[in-house]
Amino acid sequence: MTSSDPRFAALTPNEFAHLGDGVIAYVKTIKSEDAQRLFPQAPVIRPGLELFALLSADGSPIMLTDSKDAAIANAWQQELETVSLH
User: Fold this and answer.
1) What 3-state class would DSSP assign to 17?
2) Cα(86)–Cα(79) distance, integer angstroms
3) 24-31 and 81-83 beta bridge pairing
4) How many Å apart are CA 52 and CA 71, to the nearest integer?
5) Of 46, 48, 58, 71, which has the maximum CB count within 10 A?
6) pLDDT tens series, the chain, 86 aa
7) Which residue ranges make up each domain of the chain?
């Protein structure tokens, strides 16, 4: 693969920002102290808990849970492909 390969034409910033919309999601482990920032509508949660956020490809929050399995199951229910981030 090279940058001149037409299959990998440069994306505009807007196209790149929407890559995977409605198709791809990821699960991110967060601390309860950070939940309010991603999920402002969430109730106050006791500090120090490990939670799992399901986020769309662009980072928009979808759901918050205390179970990674529940986050993945929700993605499947919404026909979203989950990917791992490293």
Assistant:
1) helix
2) 23
3) parallel
4) 7
5) 71
6) 455 666 656 756 665 555 555 678 999 999 999 999 999 998 989 999 999 999 988 888 999 999 999 999 999 998 888 887 65
7) 6-83
